[in-house]
Automatic annotation (TrEMBL):
Name assigned to this protein: 6-phosphofructokinase
Gene Ontology cellular-component annotations: 6-phosphofructokinase complex
Highest taxon of the lineage: Bacteria
Cofactor(s) listed in the protein's UniProt record: Mg(2+)
Localization annotation: Cytoplasm
């Protein structure tokens, strides 16, 4: 087997806390391998010069959410011609393997590049946690913590001025992982997620029930993508306002809103994400040394594993069953699973 000398790393799609820790994990195993990075995702391969990582003090950067490598959404990998340009550029620099840190779209591109002649390895990095083959994605735990921090504060103002209804809209793309975990950990009363149906009438009657029995307040967590009349477009915000309006009409009470938005994606990583990222970065290098490509590094049963990229991109990740069961038992979800 030909010894691997040069690896390039990119971050692609939405950023997530923990990028620097992935790099830190890679460098500590650097031995006989040169590691380069490109700023700006797939576009960066075409438009920028590689950065050699040995020159950078990663120890300090490890704890920061201000990433050494910037990310982007780019058009190039979506066409065969674009991918051919990316492969040509990487080969001209003598790169043996490309490591792609990103979400499902980025990993799809990595799968296609591998098929077309550029060996790639994927690392699941997205706050949404919506990637098949891994229990957690890098950035997810930090994003859930952001939601929970807000809910803790909300409980206090809600307690101080009782009798009110609060609605918090959270990120998560087309999945409800952040909303479900955030709502449970943050003690919300109701959670609205894209995987389950939600009739405003049912939500309204549950709100009335809670206000009557507890006599204090109601906190609702709503996923950003729960549109019924059209498809969700990444970055869309405001569906909670629409649902809130319907609830107001049904109950005759005001719904008070907070749309969390990008605040959930920025900031320093929590230790859980730093440690996950460090291990995935280190494992990726180890795997490349063992001649692996065409895989994603996943996290299952407390350890890193390799999952074929083809499997990752052709399957949908289910919600955590235990969390879903608890939310249903507590009547935080009023609806049925969407098939
Ligand atoms: N079907 C596809 N084929 C080829 N390349 C793709 C495809 N989908 C996405 N990509 C590439 O991956 C990049 C990132 O994809 P996308 O914007 O969907 O984010 P992501 O990686 O899914 O992360 P996140 O959902 O967390 O933002 C795109 O800008 C594009 O370059
Ligand atoms: O930064 P953009 O392109 O507006 O995308 C926002 C989307 O990206 C994500 O943060 C995932 O990276 C989603 O949670 C969110 O809907």
């Amino acid at each position: 087997m030909k010894p691997i000398k040069r690896i390039a790393v990119i971050v692609s799609g939405g950023d997530a806390p923990g990028i620097n820790s992935v790099l830190f994990g890679m460098i500590s195993k650097n031995n006989d391998i040169e590691i380069y990075g490109f700023n700006g995702g797939y576009d960066g391969i075409l438009n920028s010069e590689p950065i050699y990582f040995k020159d950078i003090n990663l120890r300090q950067a490890n704890v920061s959410g201000n990433s050494i490598l910037q990310t982007s959404r780019s058009a190039a990998p979506r066409t065969k011609e674009g991918r051919a340009k990316i492969i040509k550029r990487l080969k001209s620099l003598g790169i043996d393997t490309l490591i792609v840190c990103g979400g499902d779209g980025s990993l799809k591109a990595a799968e296609l590049l591998t098929e077309e002649g550029m060996p790639c390895l994927g690392i699941p990095l997205t706050i949404d946690n919506d990637i098949y083959g891994t229990e957690f994605t890098i950035g997810y735990n930090t994003a859930v913590k952001r939601v929970v921090d807000v809910l803790y504060n909300l409980h206090q103002t809600a307690h101080n001025m009782p009798g009110r209804i609060f609605m918090v809209e959270v990120f998560g793309g087309k999945s409800g992982h952040i909303a479900l975990a955030g709502a449970l950990a943050g003690g919300a009363d109701i959670v609205i997620i894209p995987e389950m149906t939600r009739r405003p009438e049912d939500i309204a009657s549950r709100i009335k029930e809670i206000l009557k029995s507890k006599n204090d307040y109601v906190i609702i967590v709503c996923s950003e993508s729960v549109y019924d009349t059209r498809d969700y477009i990444p970055g869309d915000q405001g569906i909670s306002m629409e649902i809130g309006k319907k609830i107001e009409e049904l109950i005759g009470m005001r719904v008070r809103h907070s749309v969390l938005g990008y605040f959930q994606r920025g900031g320093d990583p929590d230790p859980a994400d730093s440690l996950l990222a460090l291990q995935m970065g280190s494992f990726a290098i180890e795997s490349i040394k063992n001649g692996k490509s065409g895989y994603m590094v996943g996290w299952n049963h407390h350890r890193c594993v390799l999952v074929p990229l083809s499997k990752v991109v052709s399957n949908r990740k289910e919600l955590d069953n235990n969390l879903l069961k608890i939310a249903l038992e507590k009547e935080m979800i009023i609806g049925n699973e969407i098939m």
